[in-house]
């Protein structure tokens, strides 16, 4: 199977090959609208000033409840490290196909997996995307090439884990829980952290294909870094909203397991990646969840007579296995465990 990068660089692509053409559903044609995605100031969330912190926690609750997405500013991850991470990712995808295919894992939960599309065994149409997926915590699994790649990834994922830890503390506050509730209940310190690097080359007819179709993410929170080419769209109130990030910001979204844990109070929201004619879009997601063997279900604090249990409990690793082994289509995995 050719990677999309290899396909584009072969100079044979004047149009989109038929096996990449996606059949559009009515939802794909929903109105576009530019709205301001909520912005959270991380420095206020971690401030020693009670007023600033309280305000940021309130804003965080609104973002998780009504949007499922927010932009994070003043997060403390240096622009230098962010740029190093983007350059290192570009360098990995610039390796020869032979070198990259050394990391072509066969199983969904392989520690390192390089590939194309989403899952070529089940995709009805291929997606205009190459990827690298690494399980980076509690054990660091990273390709040994290119030189220096693993060291940069290690520094970056440590910083991102610190940021997510503070966000989860703030989310607990927004839910009226003890600030370490999620950390302790789901053993987040030993939880799974996955790095997903996405490579979307320029496309001659971007209206015919997708980078990734509408889907939700597994886990609690996903932190997204991207280069100058935008392409993420969020479904909000029946419209697709382009997520054009502020300078030096992260885009953060709530995942399926935060929706499960809060029994639907906080939402995991559909989003998709579109491609463009102008240049290669690189996005780097770090998904943060419970340990793979932890069973996650609705917390008792969110269940009562008016709010019965809405989801079946399921082992986190089993959930990922199911999601990644089937066609990526909207909320099919979350819907499968809905009561």
TrEMBL record:
<keyword id="KW-0539">Nucleus</keyword>
<dbReference type="InterPro" id="IPR026992">
    <property type="entry name" value="DIOX_N"/>
</dbReference>
<keyword id="KW-0963">Cytoplasm</keyword>
<comment type="function">
    <text>Involved in the regulation of shoot development and salicylic acid (SA) homeostasis.</text>
</comment>
<dbReference type="Pfam" id="PF14226">
    <property type="entry name" value="DIOX_N"/>
</dbReference>
<dbReference type="GO" id="GO:0005634">
    <property type="term" value="C:nucleus"/>
</dbReference>
<dbReference type="GO" id="GO:0005737">
    <property type="term" value="C:cytoplasm"/>
</dbReference>
<keyword id="KW-0847">Vitamin C</keyword>
<dbReference type="InterPro" id="IPR027443">
    <property type="entry name" value="IPNS-like_sf"/>
</dbReference>
<feature type="domain" description="Fe2OG dioxygenase">
    <location>
        <begin position="191"/>
        <end position="290"/>
    </location>
</feature>
<keyword id="KW-0560">Oxidoreductase</keyword>
<dbReference type="GO" id="GO:0046872">
    <property type="term" value="F:metal ion binding"/>
</dbReference>
<dbReference type="InterPro" id="IPR050295">
    <property type="entry name" value="Plant_2OG-oxidoreductases"/>
</dbReference>
<keyword id="KW-0479">Metal-binding</keyword>
<dbReference type="GO" id="GO:0031418">
    <property type="term" value="F:L-ascorbic acid binding"/>
</dbReference>
<comment type="similarity">
    <text>Belongs to the iron/ascorbate-dependent oxidoreductase family.</text>
</comment>
<keyword id="KW-0408">Iron</keyword>
<dbReference type="InterPro" id="IPR044861">
    <property type="entry name" value="IPNS-like_FE2OG_OXY"/>
</dbReference>
<dbReference type="GO" id="GO:0016491">
    <property type="term" value="F:oxidoreductase activity"/>
</dbReference>
<dbReference type="Pfam" id="PF03171">
    <property type="entry name" value="2OG-FeII_Oxy"/>
</dbReference>
<protein>
    <recommendedName>
        <fullName>Fe2OG dioxygenase domain-containing protein</fullName>
    </recommendedName>
</protein>
<dbReference type="InterPro" id="IPR005123">
    <property type="entry name" value="Oxoglu/Fe-dep_dioxygenase_dom"/>
</dbReference>
